[in-house]
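Hey Z.,

So I finally got round to the 2-acetamido-2-deoxy-beta-D-glucopyranose thing we talked about over coffee. Here's the setup:
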Amino acid sequence: MKKRFGWNSAYAVTILLWLVMCYLAWNFGYEVGKASVGGELERSDRTARRQGNNYNGSKLLPQGDKAAKLEERFPRPCQRVGDGTSQIVIFNTIPKCGGRTILSLTFALKQSLKVNIKSALNFSLEGSSNVKVLGYMNRVFSNLPSPGFIYTNTRLVALQTIPSRVPVRIGLIRDPMQRLVSAFYHARFGDRMSASAVDDETWQKQLQKNHKNISESFDDCVKSKSSECLGEETKGALVKQFCGYDTVCSTASPAALLRAKENVKNHYLLVGVLEEIDDFVRVLEKLVPSVFSGGFHTLENDKRVQSVIANSRTIGVESVSEQTKGIIKKHLSLDFEFYYFIQWRFMKQKEACGY
Ligand SMILES: *[C@@H]1O[C@H](CO)[C@@H](O)[C@H](O)[C@H]1NC(C)=O
Ligand SMILES: *[C@@H]1O[C@H](CO)[C@@H](O)[C@H](O)[C@H]1NC(C)=O
Ligand SMILES: *[C@@H]1O[C@H](CO)[C@@H](O)[C@H](O)[C@H]1NC(C)=O
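And the result:
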């Protein structure tokens, strides 16, 4: 069934589904805000690189990272995909990683680009089988006219495709620790979108039901070794998302990490990092103009997009101690390795596009 969403219904569906997950949107919005207006630091880095000023990514990448070596085959040339009209972009969203900004951006661009947008969030499919998800995604994919944009939380499945309809997979991730911290505070305070969608009483009930203590900080949570911060289930969120639905992907393991990296290399046109969302959009403008042309200007200037950015920032986020950082870096080591791998690949692609 094809369904076209307006701004309001897209909002409602997105908001409600994420709320059900109790795991909403993203946070530390200040980084996003900074990135989207092209923070000074960002810009001078970019300029340095353009001028061939020996920028080698050492700021981004820990020295000697294994992931970087794996990636050296890459640098994809900065070329438009296909004929520019037949693409269907599949955007893989993960909670707290800027998905709502990208969705709102495509809605803002739809006016000029006539892209068909489909929100395909389906939380009942989490932990599902390849076959079930494949059935669902094949339906979504085959019913959407191109150029199209599919917004989905489902992991990678091999779609039935024909040459005139090309799936183009993209994704956006962020620093795994900041993602976890953001999710922690979001479960307690939400953001302005959830504040306007849910009244205080309901929110309080929700907190009680979920045993969330609003006086507890993320540092407290780590100190007390609570499963909310240090449980097995907090590990590997990024890795599992890009690994898929095979059994190897059900736990955070080196094998799942390897699979996730292979999947990115073989199936994803671009995976960006939220910290550099402005460059993510700029590169997309070059690679998939049929869906993202004018994206950077719109990201910076469109009032609705700016409002989504402002209203999806997590409320109440506190900074974490150095000790907590050390513990979480170890706890999320696989996610961090994946994140560094993505940073490196993204940097290469940005460079190929002149950013
Ligand atoms: C990158 O630059 C830094 C600082 O200029 C330098 O210490 C490092 O060795 C360089 N790394 C590579 C891989 O060239
Ligand atoms: C999620 O997928 C299942 C299985 O294909 C389907 O029955 C269900 O209607 C889907 N839910 C939504 C919200 O699309
Ligand atoms: C909530 O967290 C604070 C700070 O960690 C703690 O002092 C307090 O005892 C907690 N309250 C409950 C009901 O667990």
